[in-house]
Amino acid sequence: MPATRCARLVSSRCVAHRASVAIVAAALWLQAGAACGVWAGEFNPDRSIGDTVPAWSGLPGTDGAEHGWDEVADRDFVVVVFTCNSCPYAVDYEDRINALAKTHAAEGSRVAVVAINANTIPEDSLAAMKKRAESKGFVFPYLSDVSQEVPKSFGALRTPEAYLLNAKREILYMGAIDDNTDASKVESHHLEAALKAALTGEPIPVAETPPVGCLIRFKRQRR
């Protein structure tokens, strides 16, 4: 066999071997992580269903006021959606979040809906959020968290990413709002199904799903 051909064959076998080793190592790492509790939920790296999240406070809203948990503490259930202006997936869900709030979070209801934007790029500035909220007619508080501490405390990674909390700030549901970014093709309304079950005291049918959307633009920190 020519030397060059032999070298290519050896090289390709080495690459294949390294790939197989990497796959096995990744599988073992995931198994070890699950066994040691590295992964909290099935899809959330930090939180599990039933965990209590910290109360937020002092978040400026598009209405010009500051908002905190105390405003919704009297509600039996609170829907928190991490979203933004700049992500096309988040934009696809704006009307659906608004519809959910209109249906379930009217004044005097048992439910509150809150949206939080933690991105800090100009397109997601509070001024831009105000324009967005006005043009879309948002009926829910749209809050800015430039500290980015709130999504971190939830283990949130994407926009949109939804959470259903009870009055004790315990997570009842977390993940995607529904099963399709195209509203005309949705078959399973994950978040609303969880909310309806909670309102009637029934078990949550699906408590966690993988969120689909853009990554939250967390600030880089020097090591």
Summarize the structure.
It is built from 5 helices and 9 strands; from the N terminus they run H-E-E-E-H-E-H-E-H-E-E-E-H-E. The chain has 223 residues and is an alpha/beta fold.
Distance between the termini: 51 Å
> Mind telling me which CATH architecture of the largest domain this is?
3-Layer(aba) Sandwich
The strand line-up of the biggest sheet is 5-4-3-7-8
Q: DSSP strand (E) fraction?
A: 15-25%
- In CATH's first tier, which class of the largest domain applies? Alpha Beta
Instruction: Determine the CATH topology of the largest domain.
Output: Glutaredoxin
**Corresponding CATH superfamily of the largest domain:** Glutaredoxin
Rg calculated over all Cα atoms: 21 Å
How many separate domains make up the residues?
Answer: 2
Mean pLDDT metric: 87
In N-to-C order, the SSE pattern is HEEEHEHEHEEEHE
Q: How many DSSP-defined strands?
A: 9
Quick one: biggest sheet?
Answer: 5 strands, mixed
Count of discrete alpha- or pi-helical segments spanning 4 or more residues: 5
Q: What is the percent of helical residues?
A: 25-40%
The computed structural class is: alpha/beta
Unreliable stretches (pLDDT < 50, length at least 5) are 1-38
Envelope shape: globular
